[in-house]
Specification:
It catalyses: L-glutamine + H2O = L-glutamate + NH4(+). The chain is α/β, with parallel strands linked by helices and 243 residues long. The protein is built from 6 helices and 12 strands. The chain starts with a strand and ends in a 30-residue tail after the last helix. Bound molecules: glutamine.
Amino acid sequence: MAIVGVLALQGSFNEHIAALRRLGVKGVEIRKPEQLRNVTSLIIPGGESTTMAKLAESYNLFPALREFVKMGRPVWGTCAGLILLSNNAVGQKSGGQGLIGGLNCTVHRNLFGSQLQSFEAELLVPEIASSEGGPETFCGVFIRAPAILEVGKEVQVLADYPAPSNGLLEENVEEERRVIVAVRQGNILATAFHPELTADTRWHSYFLKMADDTGEEALSSPVAIPVDISCVQQPRNDLPIYR
Ligand SMILES: NC(=O)CC[C@H](N)C(=O)O
C-alpha cells in the first residue's frame, strides 16, 4: 500500500493525516530529508510559508524536496504548500523566502488578506467532481489565502474565484477579474484553500489516484465516504491560525 508523506514542520499536517486515515491510507510525518526515501507521494500542508521555509532550510530539506518534485513523484501543496511549490511568489515578507518550485505559476502569497478576512466559499471543480463523484461543488476554506495570478501552458486550472477588491492587485479589478485557486501540472496538485479542514475527502482521494496514475501503488480498494458539503459561505473568524 502507498505511504503518503506529509511535511510536518508546521501547520495543518495532522488534519491531512486524519483525512488520509479516513480513506484507509497511512500518512507519515516528514521532517528529515532521508524520510522522503520511504514515501511515494507528499502533501505539503497549509500554515505559514515563511516559517515553513525557514524550518525547511534549517533541516536542510530543500534539496531533497526539489529532487522529489523533479523525479515526478506526486506532490500536493495546500495553501502555504501551494506557495512553496510555485516558481514565483509575490507579496513575500521582506527578505523573501525559499521556494521548492516546480509549479510554473506566479502566486500572490496573501491575496485574500489577513486572518480576519478568512472565509468559506463554494467552488465549482468539474475535474474533481467527475473523477470522484458527488456534488459539482466543493467547500473551499480560505485562511489568509494565496491566489495564483498567472500559469504556464502546461498548467491545468481546476478552480478559480473572483479576485478580492482589497487593493492588493495592481490593476483595477472592477471588471470581474478572477484568480486561480486550484491547479494541476502533471505530478503536482495545488490548492489555495484547505480541503483537509472539511469532511469531504474527494481531494485526498483524487490525489491518491494521481499516485496511481504515475505508477505508484495507491489505494488497494478506495473507501467510499459519504460527501458532506456544509459550506457556510461567509466570513469565518473561528478558523485555525497556523502561525
Ligand atoms: N493558510 C495558509 O496556509 C496561509 C498561507 C500564508 N498566506 C503564507 O504566506 O504562508
